[in-house]
Write a structure and sequence with these properties.
It contains 13 helices and 37 strands. With 661 residues, the chain is α+β, with helices and mostly antiparallel strands. It has four domains: 215 residues, 2-Layer Sandwich (D-amino Acid Aminotransferase, Chain A, domain 1), CATH 3.30.470.30; 118 residues, OB fold (Dihydrolipoamide Acetyltransferase, E2P); 128 residues, DNA primase, PRIM domain (Alpha-Beta Complex); 165 residues, Alpha-Beta Plaits (2-Layer Sandwich). Strands 30, 31, 32, 33, 34, 36 and 37 form a seven-stranded mixed sheet that branches. Helix 8 packs across helix 9. It is globular. The protein starts with a helix and ends with a strand.
């Protein structure tokens, strides 16, 4: 493809993304529904001469890799340009979309990149499933309602539907006319093996690069009991502890113990240590399975006697008998290894049905969290009315984010902000451990140091394991706030973190905070510190640096000097003064949160806003690229997706501690 040809292809557009629906599939005549696909998101851009470019969601050229798709639609366009948004998928022999096969194909392509470009894979054909049309001829369709874009898309002839086709969509009214509901469509998606359903507002425009409330995804997630058969030592930030578990279950036909995959997320720091200690006592020289697992899955594996039973969350059980998209939920002391049966092997296994309705309001259930059994209540109580996000979903979020959250809480007294009646109801701050707290909860008694301190003491909770985190979530403690210091043997240690809280005043947003953050970044680096950034989950953001100091007052003094310096340099956009009258049109650099009596919202904490937004670590590239509030606004489900891709972006804080200038 020449540069001239490429110039005639429609310019790439950052794709619009779906937001998680918080477990509540939307319903009503304003909605349409599509299957959620398990492939590679791709744009198909076609020039007037038929030149076709396939581009990934990150603007990587896919054209050579999926050469069979190039030019397929050109005969139907009559010399018009077009831009289709969709997904490249592979089908298995059972007629279901098979991401595992796509991954295998991808690996083969990468290995052959040094050979001829456009190499074919006739044994693993791909198909482009289009679900949106962004341009047709000279007409830009971004502002056109979804319903009209879909109509135009479906009127395009598909010369070869085996290679390019349109994703099925159905409106609420069409379902109702057939005496069916969106839940029926979801059940059909489950039985057909799709990842889930995406609900789309029929009136919505296409908003590039954003996750608006007009596209809402409802994934299908399953749980599975597993036998722990081995473990891998951790790497990088988890060096010296457990990195992941190798899992088994019994074949439902033969009863043999078979390998079904691994799990590396969902562990707290304490859980990793406890599991490692237990597993080291069970070590054996060889694997316990009836057949040897793939070698690439068992690098650095340490095998154990298959005596421990646990539970995982997963999204898919593959054709090869593997669980995918896994997260650890905890050990099951009430189960014996012989009771653990593998999911039915695909292709004949029907996908799991939609999750059952939540238990009735006021209902109570007992769950295993780590090494503790906890009683949870009112799981279907809606705490975020705008999203229908329930207390059960809050507990699920904190359980799944525990692995990256708990290291940032370890040793730090926690202050809760509780919302027992949801974010629209009354809230209160809670420092003292409430009556009825479990006896096993770790606490620390410290002198009261707040502005209303009267010389008394406060018994703070210490959340250093999954049970403590689940207990707090069950109390509707949506927000978790911690100081910049830790405790050891009941005594407060010197600060180990420096924080700058960037608070946008009236007329400014997080976009303005990002510009100030970039300036602070350069100053801090010049002073020998390593800054990290996170959103506040509300309107602003915070910067952190790991520090060494023996003076509790030094961080505030240093932070105040920098804040005042930036305010002097650009008084029109920055203020270091707390008075609200000084904040209009400016970003307030709040240096005072370094005071030992102050706390800051913890990384990965939910916030008590209209939506279940999270205080989210971000990269400096994201800070530099932020041009809209939505670019750095993340909900609970989006944060879980980010962790799967990025890990903990603040993991390096302890390792980069440096003397405070």
């Amino acid at each position: 493809m020449t540069a001239d040809d490429a110039s005639r292809v429609p310019a790439w557009i950052e794709p619009m993304l779906a937001k998680a629906d918080g477990g509540r599939l939307r319903s009503g005549p304003e909605w349409a529904y599509e299957y959620k696909l398990d492939g590679y998101r791709a744009a198909m851009r076609i020039g007037p001469a038929g030149t076709t470019v396939l581009t990934s969601r990150n603007n990587i050229d896919f054209t050579a890799e999926f050469a069979d798709l190039a030019g397929v639609l050109a005969p139907a366009l009559d010399g018009r340009a077009a831009y289709l948004d969709g997904e490249v998928v592979v089908y298995g022999e059972d007629g279901r979309i098979d991401f595992e096969l796509m991954q295998e194909r991808r690996g083969r392509y990468v290995r052959h990149q040094s050979g001829p470009k456009g190499i074919g894979f006739k044994d693993v054909p791909v198909r482009f499933l289009a679900f949106d049309l962004l341009r047709l001829g000279d007409r830009n369709l971004l502002a056109t309602p979804y319903e009209e874009r879909r109509h135009l898309l479906t009127t395009l002839a598909m010369p070869d539907p085996y290679r390019v086709s349109v994703v099925r969509a159905v409106t609420f009214d069409e379902l109702a006319a057939d005496r069916r509901t969106p839940e029926d469509f979801l059940a059909h998606a489950a039985s057909a093996g799709y990842e889930g359903v995406v609900a789309k507002l029929r009136s919505s425009p296409y908003v590039p690069g954003q996750r608006p409330d007009s596209w809402l995804k409802h994934p299908l997630i399953r749980t599975q009991e597993v036998v722990v058969c081995g473990w891998r030592p951790g790497q990088r930030s988890f060096t010296g502890t457990l990195g992941g578990l190798l899992l088994g279950a019994h074949d439902p036909a033969t009863g043999d113990l078979v390998y079904i995959g691994d799990v590396g997320t969902g562990f707290s720091q304490a859980t990793r240590a406890e599991l490692q200690e237990q597993l080291q006592r069970l070590e054996r020289r060889t694997h316990p399975f009836v057949t040897t697992p793939p070698r690439e899955d068992t690098v650095r594996a340490r095998w154990v006697e298959p005596r421990l039973v646990g539970e995982i969350v997963y999204r898919q059980f593959t054709r090869a008998g593997r669980v995918r998209h896994t997260a650890w939920r905890g050990l099951r002391h009430d189960k014996e290894p012989g009771e653990v049966i593998a999911p039915r092997a695909v292709p004949h296994e029907p996908a799991a049905p939609p999750p059952p309705p939540a238990e009735p309001a006021g209902g109570r259930i007992t769950v295993q969290a780590g090494n503790r059994r906890l009683t949870l209540s009112n799981l279907d109580k809606v705490l975020y009315p705008a999203d229908g996000f329930t207390k059960g979903e809050v507990i699920n979020y904190y359980s799944r984010v525990a692995a990256v959250l708990l290291p940032h809480l370890a040793g730090r007294p926690v202050t809760f902000i509780r919302y027992p009646n949801g974010v629209g109801g009354e809230k209160w701050f809670e420092k003292n451990v409430p009556n009825g707290a479990p006896a096993w909860l770790r606490t620390v008694r410290l002198p009261s140091s707040g502005s209303r301190g009267n010389g008394g003491t406060i018994d703070y909770p210490l959340l250093d394991d999954l049970p403590g985190l689940v207990w707090a979530a069950n109390m509707a403690a949506l927000e978790l706030h911690v100081p910049q210091w830790t405790v050891e043997a009941g005594t407060r240690r010197p600060p180990d973190r420096l924080v700058f809280d960037l608070d946008p005043g009236p007329g400014t947003t997080i976009v303005d905070c990002c510009r100030v953050a970039a300036r602070l970044h350069d100053v801090l680096v010049a002073d020998g510190l390593t800054p990290y950034a996170k959103t506040s989950g509300s309107k602003g953001m915070q910067l952190y640096c790991g520090i060494d100091t023996d003076d509790p007052a030094a961080p505030s003094a240093y932070a105040k000097r920098l804040a005042q310096r930036l305010a002097r340099e650009t008084p029109e956009s920055v203020t270091a003064v707390m008075a609200k009258a000084q904040r209009t049109g400016r970003v307030f650099i709040d240096w005072s949160q370094n005071n030992p009596a102050k706390t800051t919202v913890a990384p990965y904490s939910l916030r008590g806003r209209d939506h279940p937004t999270v205080s989210t670590p971000v990269t400096w590239d994201e800070v530099g690229a932020c041009r809209h509030v939505n670019h750095l606004t993340f909900t609970a489900d989006e944060v879980l997706d980010r962790i799967e891709g990025h890990g903990d972006l603040l993991a390096g804080l302890p390792e980069t501690r440096a003397p405070l200038p």
